[in-house]
Design brief:
Elements lengths: L9 E7 L2 E7 L9 H15 L7 H18 L9 H18 L4 H4 L12 E3 L4 H10 L6 E4 L5 H9 L6 E4 L7 H11 L4 E5 L7 H8 L6 E3 L18 E4 L1 H4 L2 H13 L3 E4 L6 H8 L7 E2 L12 E2 L2 E3 L2 E3 L9 E2 L1
Parallel strand pairs: 3-4, 4-5, 5-6, 6-7, 7-8, 8-9, 9-10
Antiparallel strand pairs: 1-2, 11-14, 12-13
Helix pairs in contact: 1-3, 2-3, 5-6, 7-8
Length: 331
């Protein structure tokens, strides 16, 4: 949806009993969020948060949500939204603290096997054909690519990718095909191009139109902007085959777990995605990845000055750190 040379994220540190948990949220401009607005939310909550017991993390997450929603109601005139990236930063810090206090990696607390992490795709942004070919060549070690589309240049973009590689591709249209007939034409064309699935082909509000498209194509369709939180998922059945779960959209680790469970209960596929952020946020999502079918966790690979080291990628496969909590280390 955009190109940028920097991103502002919100980082939270939770210190108690000599243990420090770290969390991060990447605000999404589309939802009127910003790092500065998120910081105000955290600053307002700080005196209350300092009195809470982070080991009661489930109850704490619910209380944080109620208090943030209360702040939103009070600030409606200032257009401060629900600040889910700020909630994510708090929740990740809490869960990191809990893991460290119990001296166990987050995946272990969740009963997950770190050997069952999926392969992650690497995103290829919209660019000129020459730059696209160069980016694809640079991504040679990744077995799966995620190609951004949604413009008049879609055919040229994919032709540039296919001139360099025949590896599997996942397409993210970023709501770019607002006409349902166009969406059908584009997806039918993609069916012959080695594409695994298409993410958010139409604008988020056009669920019934997407349902119409889904009845006329064969490729699976995943929801991203149409699936923000767990309560959004049931209405997507029949229009989408799966959902892209992002901690920054839904409000953190615990909210992502709920979203994954709801989607699974409805027979839908699941994918973990991310925003551009440091290894803190991406590693938090990666700890949940043994639960999902697909991963698009490359946000930390797209920044030049990651201040943390956490999840790594080997031949495309996510490798989780084995330290307590998130297992991230400042560099």
């Amino acid at each position: 949806m955009s190109t940028s040379s920097f991103r502002d994220t919100l980082r939270v540190r939770l210190s108690r009993d000599g243990i420090v948990g770290v969390g991060e949220g990447a605000p999404i401009v589309r939802y009127r969020e910003s790092a500065e607005a998120g910081r105000r939310v955290v600053d307002d909550l700080r005196p209350w948060l300092e009195r809470q017991d982070p080991s009661r993390f489930r109850a704490l997450a619910s209380r944080v949500a109620r208090r943030v929603e209360g702040q939103f109601a009070a600030r409606a005139a200032r257009r401060v939204e629900g600040q889910f990236a700020a909630r994510a930063a708090i929740d990740i810090a809490v869960m990191d603290w809990v893991g460290k206090s119990l001296r166990a990696p987050l995946y272990s607390l969740l009963g997950l096997d770190p050997a069952e992490t999926p392969v992650t795709s690497l995103s290829i942004g919209i660019d000129s054909p020459g730059e696209t070919r160069q980016r694809v060549r640079a991504a040679e070690s990744f077995p799966v690519l995620k190609v951004k589309m949604g413009l008049d240049s879609d055919e040229a973009t994919l032709e540039a990718v296919r001139s360099v590689t025949d590896k599997p591709i996942r397409v993210d249209a970023n709501e770019g095909w607002a006409d349902k007939e166009e969406a059908v034409r584009k997806i039918r064309w993609l069916e012959s191009q080695g594409v695994e699935f298409v993410e958010q082909p139409m604008p988020a509000a056009m669920i019934e139109e997407t349902r119409w498209v889904r009845e006329r194509v064969h490729l699976p369709i995943f929801a991203d902007e149409a699936a923000l939180r767990a309560e959004d998922v049931p209405r997507l059945v029949g229009a989408f085959d799966g959902v892209n779960v992002k901690l920054d959209k839904c409000g953190g680790i615990q909210a992502a777990l709920r979203m994954i469970r709801v989607a699974r209960s409805l027979g839908m596929k699941t994918m973990l995605g991310c925003m551009v952020s440091s290894s803190v946020s991406v590693t938090a999502a990666a700890h949940l990845s043994p639960l999902v079918d697909f991963a698009d966790l490359d946000g930390n690979l797209l920044v030049a000055d990651d201040p943390y080291r956490g999840v790594t990628v080997r031949d495309g496969k996510l490798t989780l750190p084995d330290g307590p909590g998130l297992g991230v280390v400042a560099v």
